[in-house]
């Protein structure tokens, strides 16, 4: 009977494990925050739930390109165009935002995008709340630049490649009186100019591979098998959070999620997997980093949003916690694309493995050559109208032909390549909405605002009629007046408006209203408590006591730059704020020392433990869990948990979360029976 009693106690323990902190998503921002928190608080039990799993080979990824198993396909910058938006990337696509391509797995979108590093201009940042202005964030940008090897020359041999197209466009920009500058930090001097151009500054590992998030942060806590290095960190992979379990006071008590046995099933929206539940200790915290589309979706499904608007935002929603700003100002940058021919030039398609065999061999042996570069070879920021205060349009030069090497618009004679005009200072925003399946709907922000259309028409007119003719070796192939749209007159703004405002594509090539995947503003930092959003001093979602947001959702548009640099710098800032809050709530001094990896921008981060929205506070009584560093059993140290999620969603260190409360109840009954019998 004694052994029966011990068995019952063991079952109770393993099914009732509680966590101090649950991280939702291992995307760009959360990867940075969890790296700091796990290391700085080794006595806190932390759970990471991620919809994907290992991507980079350095942290356990095994999706290799067909030409090598020395690197995962996401590790190769030149594979940038071959995963996202392509069949190869379907298993990584977040199907809950099916209208676009958002990636999942360790590092999130940072493992799939072009990693263009641009700070938000100072004049833009200084419109954000106190604590998030340029003086607050610039040290964090500098910290990321140092850690993440930001460079305009990613090839390990220190050379740039695909230079003929870059040189041809450099001649255009130079003749247009644009200076070539360093665009890592967009200072007031640059932003008050008429424009500028540069090679792309990108995030690398310092040796010709995609890096940044993996090398600078994730490798501190995850090993090369994709498993946790730290005894206080459990990881569940292939698991999508369906909702947070939140009580009427606004306190999250746990997280409900579904675990899959395979990477993804795109065929059935309702095939979610096996439901599980992870539980927080009293006073524990949830940190949301699922991205600007999925984080507000999770809040909606958890009962947090603009009360009274449920019927217009989705099916069967019930916002019992009112936060007017959740999902309220969703936006994205907007693109219009053309194709240009370079006489005597050479475009480049990284999917042509046979044709590019020598370049692939060079990359594998030296981490140099075209495959060490992401797609863009040159960028310019210009004004669509000279009267504007700041540049508002980016001109992005890609050497890849529109529609691929064998398209109708590319030949040995044309050598066509892409030019993308991106509206960075867009005006259109909308409210995030869910469809009948609970998936994020296509947002109506793409040239739905007349000012956005006017600015793009002006920018396209100026590029086609003023800038492009400055290099006689260049001519239009795809676009108004080109082979694709011969009836549109590029000198007629009415015709250009037809091109910009249309939603079509030509021969499979999209040309306007293009999704840029730069979503922001869906759970914004706001100073006014009555407006809802997130408290800038604690990153707590107003109306709740212990739910934090750290991803691109925070940044109120417009964000006049590619967002990845700001997401990374902001995540370092968020990690410091959350760390300070955790330390301030501890009832006794701990043995852990704060980490020194983040910049000390202020001696006091200004953290308050009280949120004024809806009279909710973050102050909680000391938990029953000791805050002094416990002695770690030798078995935990010598046998770190594994990250491969079983079909039942067992976290790495064993089966310690479950949605099957019946098992717990039965175990408790068995325990009581055994005690009674023993008496």
Give descriptors for this structure:
single chain; 679 residues; alpha/beta; seven-stranded mixed beta sheet; seven-stranded antiparallel beta sheet; 15 helices; disordered N terminus; disordered C terminus
Structure description:
The structure is a single chain. The protein is of the alpha/beta class and 679 residues long. Helix content is 23%, strand content 15%. The chain contains 15 helices and 20 strands. It has helices at 2-15, 28-40, 122-125, 134-147, 163-175, 188-191, 213-216, 294-301, 310-313, 357-366, 450-467, 493-501, 564-584, 634-638, 661-678; strands at 18-24, 46-49, 150-151, 195-198, 202-203, 233-236, 239-246, 252-259, 274-288, 304-305, 321-322, 334-342, 378-382, 393-398, 416-423, 474-478, 505-506, 509-510, 514-515, 547-549. The strands form 5 sheets. Strands 1, 2, 6, 7, 8, 9 and 20 form a 7-stranded mixed sheet that branches. α4 packs across α13 (564-584). It is globular and about 70 Å long. The N and C termini lie close together (11 Å). The relative contact order is 0.18.
